Description:
Elements (H helix, E strand, L loop, with lengths): L3 E9 L22 E6 L6 E7 L5 E5 L18 E7 L8 E6 L5 E3 L3 E4 H4 L16 E10 L1 H14 L3 E6 L43 H10 L3 E9 L3 H20 L3 H15 L7 H10 L5 E7 L8 E5 L10 E5 L30 E2 L1 E6 L3 H15 L22 E11 L11 E2 H12 L3 E6 L5 H12 L7 E5 L9 H16 L6 E10 L11 E4 L1 E2 L2 E5 L3 E5 L5 H4 L17 E7 L10 H14 L10 H7 L2 H18 L11 E3 L17 H8 L1 E2 L2 E2 L6 E2 L6 E2 L4 E2 L3
Parallel strand pairs: 1-7, 1-8, 10-11, 11-12, 15-23, 19-20, 20-21, 22-30
Antiparallel strand pairs: 1-4, 2-3, 2-5, 5-6, 9-16, 9-17, 10-13, 13-14, 14-16, 17-18, 17-26, 19-24, 21-22, 21-27, 24-25, 25-26, 28-29, 31-32
Helix pairs in contact: 4-5, 8-9, 9-10
Amino acid sequence: xxxxxxGQVVLxxxxxxxxxxxxxxxxxxxVSGLRVVVRTETGLLPGIAGNGTTDSDGNYNVPxxxxxxxxxxxxxxxxxxxxxxxxxxxxxxxxxxxVSVSDTADATLQADPxxxxxxxxxxxxxxxxxxxxxxxxxSGNAVRLLVDDQVAWSHxxxxxxxxxxxxxxxxxxxxxxxxxxxxxxxxxxxxILAFPESFDPAQPTALTGAIDNRPERLLLSAAQSxxxxxxxxxxxxxxxxxxxxxxxxxxxxxxxxSLIGFRPAWxxxxxxxxALFGGGPKGDAGALSSYFSNAGSSAQxxxxxxxxxxxxxAKAVLIDTVAGAAGNAxxxxxxxxxxASYWDTGNHSVYEPRRGSCAGEPIPVHDVSIGxxxxxxxxxxxxxxxxxxxxAPASPVVPLNPAPDAVLAAAxxxxxxxxxxxxxxxxxxxxxxxxxQGVLEAYLRAIENATEYIYIENQYFTNETIATAISAAxxxxxxxxxxxxxxxxxxxxxxxxxxxxxxxxxxxxRDAGAGASRFGVFTAWSHTGPAPAHKHTKPVIMPDxxxxxxxxxxxxxxxxxxxxxxxxxxxxxxILHALQFGSFRNGELNYVMYSGVEDxxxxxxxxxxxxQLWGEHLGMDSTDPxxxxxxxxxxxxxxxxxxxxxxxxxxxxxxxxxxxNPANGRVLAxxxxxxxxxxxxxxxxxxxxxxxxxxxxxxxxxxxxxxxxVEQTTAFNYQTGKWADQ
Length: 726
């Protein structure tokens, strides 16, 4: 049995990521100081067997511990232990290489050389070490930032209306009226992408007659005028064995949750009831295909079938991605499914009639999307093609070749160099048997390179690798001024996530040591005056739901897309992993924007995203000098700005909650003493109430008898002009 492992990391000087010498940055990486971790991967006691680093020539010699059970199980026919050899950068958990080897009887186990490109070892761009699958950074694009779905969906409606030859959509859901009716006015609309200016949300009335800007009607109109219309909606295949096992494990907590008023439990039962007996909006491919068919339309709607618990979570609209109309080509990467409750403005009002039936998230929702024109549209088209041609091989999509030319940014766009990155489940796409984890690599590289600030706002924050990267960055003595700001939900809407999220915050603070003082976690809240029409005579406070998947780092890197920071979106689904008989992950797509790094030109779009997001959350105009990158960089005041805003908001709620001051913004710091509940059964601990009660300044806390805490808003009927609670 071996007592050490030796090997060498060799630098491939012939090629870099995406076929460029030494990667996009043009600098030569070093094979010195790379971390080597050897793990025992078989037996009853798997774990780390040894650690080491590479020398200046890339050589390593790692002493490893003996197998404590060696020789004890030979009578049972056991074979030599398996060892996993992992290579990492000098700092951070980004995996560069992995190989599994069998132990030998020799004292020293000689591993085969590992070849890495310079761009695999260092830099900002995703390279997918060991493969040539990484898409290149493409310059010459025009980027449109679409913050909140009032803006995003309005742009989608305009883009669909302006399509010349084709509209292609990949979605998780597209809610529809219960049935097609040739008389559009007789249908009950589910989604309205953009509302007429005459509609007053303060005094809402019925929307009568034909309603423009409904997605299904825009698609019918496009197909009727000869445009090619394709819609693909993800659909999970259910394994009977897995479904039974998972149901049994989840049944008891969901029953208890239902009895004590746990909203996600009720929502789950409601979804089951609607699936079995109808009554709710239908948003799957079968319903949309029937709608198109009943309308006599040539528009196509197909499901993309995935393994149970895995979905194609990416949501995109592609306009004119055909050779004949490439000059008009645009890709829109959406944050939200087409479900009415995701529609919201930047004000995030508690009672917003334009959310309609509120069939999804029944609270104010913040989300971020992105529109792209230029060469990078071809990459998004290629991803749609990969899935569509599996789902509908009889009507294949062809690549957008040649890719669109470089474009000039319009007045409401920004020039940018971008890279499309993805997460792919195992064996979902051709030649990707092990899938792909490009989104995870993108985040890890940004965290690894950050020196000033990391800003992340995300629906979920439960990924262990991301947490490890953040704590390592905060502990890194070469980056003493680095600050990390997270925007998260008080209560994520997935089982177990509330507890996992809270535990990760505590772990980051513990592992970061002294760097924990440069780590801040915040949440968003809507605070309005009384709403007597909804039986609220006191000021109303309500948590906002962050559905966003966005981040900005150092003004040099930003991402917008579909990927949450959980296992399902990055590496492997965390819930019931053992019962799924393997690793599952969702299909995700993110655009990454670069400014002044990886040979990308300086562009204002990265910092503009930060300004728009921070302005909305902190109650400031995006042009406010307090938000400027120069001011905050000079004072190293990134986190302090958020802390001051959160304290001002909290102090205002303590002093007099009847005073509604938009200048105080909408953020509250996540109190370290707050409890998230017991996994599924968080209702026992009333987390929203607990959060507000645990938020303290100078020993004073919010008097909740002076506020109405609302945890679920009310549906509005577009046809009758009435609220559900009236």
